[in-house]
Design brief:
By secondary structure, the protein is of the alpha/beta class. It has one domain: Endonuclease Chain A (Endonuclease, Chain A, 2-Layer Sandwich), CATH 3.30.870.10. Helix content is 32%, strand content 23%. The protein is built from six helices and nine strands, in the order βαβαβαβαβββαβαβ. It has a nine-stranded mixed β-sheet with strand order 2-1-8-7-6-3-4-5-9, sandwiched between helices. Strand 4, helix 4 and strand 5 form a beta-alpha-beta unit. Helix 3 packs parallel to helix 4.
Length: 188
């Protein structure tokens, strides 16, 4: 890695949030701050939909935790995108077993489901949350594919578009290359 930092002036970034449901102390605090009248907060669900809509080659969702609502959320993204590759990378893909019918839907909509870390807590794994569209736009933040991340928790991240996304793509490609393909596990 280089000690030099460079960023293109053509890179854009937007704050992405999931707000707690109303009534909310946080919403009240934001409303009381005059500066909040001059800022735009992009909803997490909107940012994820945007990434799905612009991906044409590959949409990668690298998020450690998933539940039934999150599996439905991932399915919506994969069904919306025109991307040829639809990759879901989980920290322990056995979590899908608790997703009921949504497990089947996400398995059918994804072209690949990868497991990076599995249920062995002593192995290398991840806590990052990234949604990447073709290496040109990415969400990097705190939201998992969980009901609470979609509608209840305060989640924050950045939606980055432009040349700065190249570093995110390099990282996601590296994780993809070392993850276990669930379709290959247990096969010769």
């Amino acid at each position: 890695m280089s000690d030099k930092f460079s960023a293109s002036p053509k890179t854009t970034a937007r704050l992405v949030v999931t707000m707690p449901p109303e009534p909310s102390h946080l919403a009240d605090a934001l409303a009381a701050n005059i500066a909040s009248d001059y800022i735009a907060l992009t909803r997490t669900t909107d940012a994820f939909q945007h990434l799905a809509s612009i991906a044409s080659e590959r949409l990668t969702v690298l998020i450690p935790y998933i539940d039934r609502v999150g599996a439905a959320w991932a399915t919506e993204l994969f069904e919306k995108t025109k991307a040829k590759e639809k990759i879901l990378i989980l920290r322990d893909a056995s979590q899908l077993r608790s997703c009921g019918a949504e497990q089947t839907r996400v398995e059918e909509s994804a072209t690949q489901i990868l497991d990076y870390g599995g249920d062995d807590l002593s192995s290398e794994t991840f806590h990052a949350k990234i949604v990447l569209a073709d290496g040109v736009a990415a969400y990097v933040g705190s939201a998992n594919l969980l009901r609470r991340s979609k509608s209840t928790n305060l989640e924050c991240g950045m939606l980055v578009e432009g040349p700065a996304v190249g570093a995110v793509k390099v990282l996601v490609d590296a994780v993809t290359s070392i993850s276990n393909d669930l379709n290959q596990i247990g096969k010769p």
